Amino acid sequence: MSSTPMRILVTAQAFAVSGVAFRDKLGKLGCTVVDSEAWGPLTLDRLIDQARDCDAIVAATDPYCQAAFDALPRLKLVARCGIGVDSVDLASASAHGILVTNVPDAMTDAVADYCMGLLLSIARHIHIGYECMQAGGWAEYPGVELRGKTLGLVGFGRLGQAVASRALGFGLKLAVHDPWMQASIESGKLDSEWVALADRIRWVDLSELLEGSDFVSIHAPNTPQTKHMIDRRAFEKMRKTAYLINTARGALVDPAALIEAVRKGQIAGAAMDVYEQEPLPVDDPLRSAPNLLLTPHNAFNSREAAVRMSQGCYEPILDILEGRIPKSVCNPEVLRSDSLRVKQWTL
């Protein structure tokens, strides 16, 4: 193990709250762990100001861009406390010799449970009944049963599969759009329970999924190709009785098109946990649009998931200190680069 102490900045609130045990372990290894003055996402200036003397960051969705890396010559590791790394310029991180890791499995069950909770709430109007009772009222809100309805899953990675396994228990039919996963499962290249259950899934293109689903749940990654993949044309294809659920990334849905769709009755409604701008501004028109169930990006937020995320940020720091290549490196090309900054700690 290296005798060089590491100074670690924490901008992810989840680690500060649920990673106490792992923080203590880092302290016993000689590391200095410092909490951010405010929890992320931080502004670029605030990030740079606090991270100047840091070797690693347990990171929220702060702006890890070229300007940040240029200003942080000591930084060697960005350990994202979560799955998504769209706030990190991976190419720039690699050019600067900085490792980037994430925690791909920590939140799968939490998000899948939450997604089904949103689906049940919009199907049976549970949230509307709650609002009625809070206001002192008493009324009936007829909903729809799930058995026999079709759930369209846009994306069939870890989260899509976890939602699918839950949905089958409710008697939902599954329509799935994910060409890469479809090819992997049908060819037998993917060692997965879904190979055996392939007859219970109908693989379709996106248009067919939108046209034939009673519920559409998004589980695609946030890339330039998927930005606003659910747009005005997509809503025009959906059934008037259909609901949209998004627990993936806000950028996948065009918010103006969503507002137009619910106001015109093109769809029955939507449940959203993620937004292009977070926190969602107080005066954002989504807040006043009809038939929307909005929650403040909490699908990931279970106690168990927070502990797993904290462990997933602690482990790459420990790996570096003990001379191992961390798991879940998001920019593996940096491992072959002469600019890799972490070499001083390897055995």
Question: What structural keywords apply?
Answer:
37% helix; five-stranded parallel β-sheet; seven-stranded parallel β-sheet; Rossmann fold; 347 residues
Radius of gyration: 22 Å
**Could you please say which CATH topology of the largest domain applies here?**
Rossmann fold
Low-confidence stretches: none
The tally of beta strands, per DSSP, is 12
CATH class of the largest domain: Alpha Beta
Strand percentage lies at 5-15%
* Contiguous helical run count: 14
**Per CATH, which architecture of the largest domain?**
3-Layer(aba) Sandwich
Biggest sheet: strands, sense, closure? 7 strands, parallel
Give the overall shape, derived from the CA principal axes.
Answer: globular
- Residues in helix, %: 25-40%
Find the CATH superfamily of the largest domain: NAD(P)-binding Rossmann-like Domain
Mean pLDDT: 93
Describe this structure as you would to a colleague.
The protein has 14 helices and 12 strands. The longest helix is centred in the last third of the chain and has 19 residues, at 303-321. Helix 8 (158-169) links the parallel strand 6 (150-154) and strand 7. The protein has helices at residues 13-18, 20-28, 44-51, 66-71, 90-95, 108-124, 126-134, 158-169, 179-186, 193-196, 206-212, 232-237, 255-264, 303-321; strands at residues 7-10, 32-35, 56-59, 77-80, 99-101, 150-154, 173-177, 201-203, 215-218, 243-246, 269-272, 292-294. The model has no long low-confidence stretch (mean pLDDT 93). The relative contact order is 0.15. The protein is α/β, with parallel strands linked by helices. Helices cover 37% and strands 14% of the residues. Strands 8-7-6-9-10-11-12 form a 7-stranded parallel β-sheet, with helices on both faces.
